[in-house]
Amino acid sequence: MQVDQQYGSKGFGRLTRGAGLFLRNSFGSLFSREFIKVLIPLLLLWEVIPRFDILPRTLAPTLSDVALAFRDMVINKGLLLHILYSLGKFLAGLLIAVFTAIPIGIFMGWNLPIRKHTLPLFQILAPIPPPAWVPLTIIIFGIGLPMQIYLIFLGAFYPILFNTYQAIKDTDPRYLSSARVFGASELTLICNIYFWNALGAIIMSVKTGVAIALVMLVIAEMYGGRSGIGYLLVEAKDFFQIPAMVVCMLVLGMIGWFSIEILKFAELKLALWKVGR
Amino acid sequence: MEGGEMIEARRISKFFSIVNKEGIAEGLTACLSVTLSIEKGKIITLLGPSGCGKSTFLEILAGLQAPSEGEVFIDGVRVLEPLPSTRAEMDAYRKRYRFLSPLANDLFRDRPKHDIAMIFQDYAVFPWMTVLQNVTFTLKLRGLRRAEREKQALFYLNKVGLGASLHKYPSQLSGGMRQRLAFARALSVEPKAILMDEPFAAVDLLTRERLQDDLLKLLDSSGITIVIVTHDVAEAAYLSDEIIIFSPSPGTIRNRFTIDVPRPRRRDHPELADIQERISRLLKYDIDNESEYSI
């Protein structure tokens, strides 16, 4: 009630305000007065060094080459559509991982018998590097969307699972005790105590998951499929188009940065109670 | 106050096994055969040096730990069954509590086992809930309707003087205010007994004295039984009807003092000063003797 009064507007106004706040929080640092002094000389150097053949221009494209390649790819190759494909797969894999790993982690942290029955299995499977799953996955799922989504899911699943489980297990026993004395059932404890206490750690783990899922996105698209940034990257390599490769790399970096920033924003909004500390 | 036993502890013992520095398992006796009955409406203090098992004993009273031996009754209802002592009993115990720990209330239904509340050393108010939510949450656990919850929470929060900061988070409150929130939360469920584990340990002296006065004012003629664990002699003398002194290793009741000074008391009442003096001498004697043994 009071929060509404404090921030005034509702609905659309609040949404735009939130979006503005988000953009300033996450990308404001790029355009800060301090960083501009570093950014502009860097971009200039990027443009100048290949131009004066300090580095061979065929290997190190200038900034303008990259910009032209970007324009060309948007017009002729449907770069934006490919970005959307990639984002879609990435989100699908990540969401499946989030909605399976977090509940499993919560149950494993909450109950000792469940933990004893499941933890060793995950401990055996987790150390396998996710890219090592590629050959088997291709044989099982074939080349296509299911295989790509599965690989992305696999990259994000274990970090989220283990960090969630650990955070739930380490819940401060005083919170549990005081809720229990007041009569909380186990379900209430999970929904109102364990989850909220672990929320910060869970969001952190999703951030780790995002980083690994992005790696798996590139690998999955390089190995199979006819769409996505990873596919464009391999195609550019085949035709030796270095500017196009740089464009793909930058786009992937942007996807990673953007998703991490969204999570940071979610953390800020959800963990409101930590702001005062 | 009317008579009758609110809390009754019969020959409570609690043993732990710990691993010492050499990696050898050692037995540790936290409580040894403690028998205690507490009358309705009394304020009882458990006093002793740190590490003498008084906090463990309080947790056993609250049903947060099972005693190794003995039984606790709150208002005539047994709190927890003692831990098994033989192998066969142990197997049966493990089998019975395979899925759910003996501490758990229920899997799905909110239902307190006993009509008590507890206040912890650093309050244990939930930092992710606002002041109002903290109180309404506990009321919800007791099965109150939404409208009633709000009304009762507001009543008790106003009573402790937190009416102006209903929508703040605990991290935005001072230590004293957080303690008041913990009081409001405990009182709002209108329990028969409140157990407090060093409730004033984390605030400065001035705040502590004010909080003690506030606590007595809040409790005034409510008939709630209070058990306080503390190591502050002055606090114990000022607050309680009876002081129970614990001695360490093994934790047992060493002495009991009944204080008949009528309320409201003055802090510098001569009888209180006398009792404080006697208790201090007693504790000092214990500590001196202990150091002699250890040399």
Would you give an account of this structure?
The complex is a heterodimer of chains A (277) and B (295). In chain A, 30% of the residues are buried. By secondary structure, chain A is an all-alpha fold. In chain A, 80% of the residues lie in helices and 0% in strands. The N terminus of chain A is likely disordered. Chain A is globular. Chain A has two domains: 30 residues, no CATH class; 213 residues, MetI-like fold. Chain A is built from twelve helices and no strands. Chain B is α/β, with parallel strands linked by helices. Chain B has a domain of 133 residues: P-loop containing nucleotide triphosphate hydrolases (Rossmann fold, 3-Layer(aba) Sandwich). Chain B is 36% helix and 24% strand. Chain B contains eight helices and ten strands. Chain B has a six-stranded mixed beta sheet with strand order 6-7-8-3-9-10, with helices on both faces. Chain B has a four-stranded antiparallel beta sheet with strand order 2-1-4-5, covered by helices on one side. In chain B, a hairpin with a 4-residue loop joins strand 9 and strand 10. In chain B, helix 3 runs parallel beside helix 5. Chain B is globular. Chain B starts with a strand and ends with a helix. Chains A and B meet through helix 9 and helix 10 of A and strand 6 and helix 3 of B.
Key features of this structure:
heterodimer; A: 277 residues; mainly alpha; MetI-like fold; B: 295 residues; alpha/beta; Rossmann fold; 10 strands; 36% helix; globular
